[in-house]
Design goal:
The chain is of the alpha/beta class. It has helices spanning about 5-20, 30-35, 50-60, 75-85, 100-110, 125-135, 160-165, 185-195, 220-230, 240-255, 270-280, 315-320, 340-350, 355-370, 375-385, 395-400, 410-420, 425-435, 440-445, 465-475, 490-495; strands spanning about 40-45, 65-70, 90-95, 115-120, 135-140, 175-180, 200, 210-215, 235-240, 260, 285-290, 305, 330-335, 405, 475-480, 485, 500-505. The strands form four sheets. Strands 3-4-2-5-6-1-7 form a seven-stranded parallel sheet, sandwiched between helices. The chain has a six-stranded parallel sheet with strand order 8-13-12-9-11-10, sandwiched between helices. Strands 14-17 form a two-stranded antiparallel sheet. The longest helix is centred in the last third of the chain and has 19 residues, at about 355-370. The protein binds adenosine-5'-diphosphate (ADP) and zinc ion. Zinc ion (ZN) binds near residues 376, 377, 392 and 398.
Length: about 525
């Protein structure tokens, strides 16, 4: 039975205003803080930007003793430390790079710290357990708690040592925090960290002010230039490689906007300066690899664009989630190409056998998101275990429902052309064969003699590109080493008439910008 939490929450609201300067709790913060103040172990699943750190920092300030925070990244830890200290919270970190360790230990033992950040490796060291025994403890906070699960995407074996460590202090409540956890991973985290099942609190993942737009990449520079023109506020453009970051930053800079690059290959000072410039700017665009964004606190980002396919739906959600934290209308634009899927499926074949199934599932989920003719938000939220309404009114497909056409017959023609030409030609050649263009290359290979020569009427020819893209996204067509196309996935089922293919009709006009 939960104790009456209202008196605690009144005190918590006061502290929230006085120490953090916030006028109220957001989302499930009050639920989480209430449980923690009541001494109940909790797993809080809250999307990035929902304000996870507050849920342990506030109890850390209010409760006697220290809140020990386990966090996997030193850089992240130091960001948190800086902002806590700026709020007047007594905080320190014990890591290999912190030099004032003696003093920190002294303060910890004397109960003079609200927060002590440690890396998970420390949990395995016997003298750390000893130290915990000598200091007054208020709470264990485990940040990025999905690292404890092999089901998560970021397993850290050291996290497994936390349970035995915390079990030695059964009176101290535990608060595990993560932004990414499907049902499976959640159950595993509860298990691995010894948190009761009724201690799970999941925040809604919906970000209603973000408008999702997902369109084929035909001319990225033009598509992004238009996005910039429609959205004068600050924005992030994610590009897959450092080289692409450099190039896009330069090209987009020509539009007159202030555009700076950010990637791990830049000197540390340049990175820091560019990040700082972005954070303080009201109209700047930063072109970056996914290295950018972790721990960055900028509420007024008006758009996040992806120039290439993200790694997973989780990654997409996290990266687009950096837009519009202030709640104002914001845009998330994803430009994708068949080659993105081709590369991703290629990489799939190179990963460890044991990880292949998981990776394939992740990629299929992503394909489902880009290929859907339905609501993008519904696909996203269902992925995170929610039960959303079928339409949202604020994504490209809801705003302009695309036409959907049954392309099974055309798919069978395309796949048989791939098969009959020996699974080694690219789309250009296949299009010629199918539409009956007997150029030199076609006749030299005898492809004008095949039964598939000229079987696609001219009015259907324009759909071949869209279809090939969709078939690559779903894996029915896979690239060969030499840039040709081969059959894959369910291609044989399609050929045999056992599987259907529907494609989203290409829009009459560009759907890249805002309306
Ligand atoms: P997360 O770790 O969940 O990604 P953070 O803890 O970094 O999120 O918080 C995101 C932002 O929200 C920060 O700028 C933080 O100061 C702000 N924030 C957190 N809680 C509140 C609140 N109750 N009211 C206003 N802003 C808040
Ligand atoms: Zn929608």
């Amino acid at each position: 039975v939960l104790p009456d939490l209202s008196p605690d929450l009144d005190a918590a609201r006061q502290c929230l205003a006085q120490v953090f300067g916030f006028s109220g709790f957001r989302g499930v913060q009050d639920q989480v803080v209430g449980r923690v103040l009541g001494g109940h172990s909790t797993l809080a699943v809250m999307p990035t930007g929902a304000g996870k750190s507050l849920t342990y920092q506030l109890p850390a300030v209010m409760l006697p003793g220290t809140c020990v925070v386990v966090s996997p990244l030193i850089a992240l830890m130091h960001d948190q430390l800086r902002s806590a200290t700026a709020n007047g919270i007594r905080a320190a970190a014990l890591t290999s790079v912190d030099t004032d360790r003696e003093w920190t230990i002294e303060r910890f033992r004397n109960g003079e710290l609200d927060l002590l950040y440690v890396a998970p490796e420390r949990a395995s060291q016997p003298h750390f357990r000893e130290l915990l025994g000598k200091a007054p403890l208020a709470l264990f906070a485990i940040d990025e708690a999905h690292c404890v699960s092999e089901w998560g995407h970021d397993f850290r074996p050291d996290y497994r040592l936390l349970r035995p460590l915390m079990d030695a202090f059964p009176q101290v409540p535990r608060l595990a925090l993560t932004a990414t956890a499907d049902r499976h991973t959640r159950a595993d985290i509860l298990e691995q960290l010894g948190i009761p099942h009724d201690g799970l609190i999941v925040a809604g993942f919906d970000r209603p002010n973000i408008q999702y737009r997902i369109v084929p990449r035909d001319n990225p520079l033009r598509q992004l230039t238009r996005l910039l023109a429609d959205n004068p506020g600050p924005g992030v453009v994610y590009a897959p490689t450092r080289a692409q970051v450099e190039k896009l930053a330069e090209q987009l800079g020509d539009t007159g906007r202030r555009v700076l690059p950010y990637h791990a290959g830049l000197p540390a000072e340049t990175r820091a300066a560019n990040q700082e410039a972005f954070v303080t700017s009201e109209d700047m665009v930063i072109v970056a690899t996914v290295a950018f964004g972790m721990g960055i606190d900028k509420p007024d980002v008006r758009f996040v664009a992806h120039a290439g396919l993200p790694k997973s739906i989780e990654g997409y959600y996290q990266e687009t989630g950096r837009a519009g934290r202030d709640g104002d209308p914001s845009v998330a634009l994803l430009l994708w190409g068949a080659d993105d899927f081709a590369r991703a499926r290629q990489r799939l074949s190179e990963v460890d056998q044991s990880r292949q199934q998981g990776e394939r599932t992740r990629l299929d989920a992503l394909a489902g998101l880009v290929e859907t003719a339905g609501c993008r938000r519904a696909v996203l939220l269902r992925h995170f275990g929610e039960d959303p309404p079928p339409t949202c009114g604020n994504c490209d497909n809801c705003l302009e429902p695309p036409g959907l056409t049954d392309a099974t017959e055309l798919a069978r023609k395309l796949l048989s052309a791939v098969y009959r030409t020996g699974q080694s030609y690219g789309l250009g050649h296949l299009e010629k064969v199918l539409t009956g263009v007997a150029d030199e290359r076609v006749t030299a290979r005898g492809h004008d003699q095949l039964s598939v020569f000229g079987i696609v009427p001219a009015d259907q020819a324009p759909l071949l590109k869209t279809l090939a893209r969709a078939l690559q996204a779903r894996g029915s067509l896979v690239p060969t080493e030499h840039g040709g196309l081969a059959l894959g996935g369910d291609a044989r089922d399609i050929l045999k008439g056992l599987a259907q293919v529907e494609v989203v009709l290409p829009p009459a006009k560009e759907r890249g910008g805002r309306h």
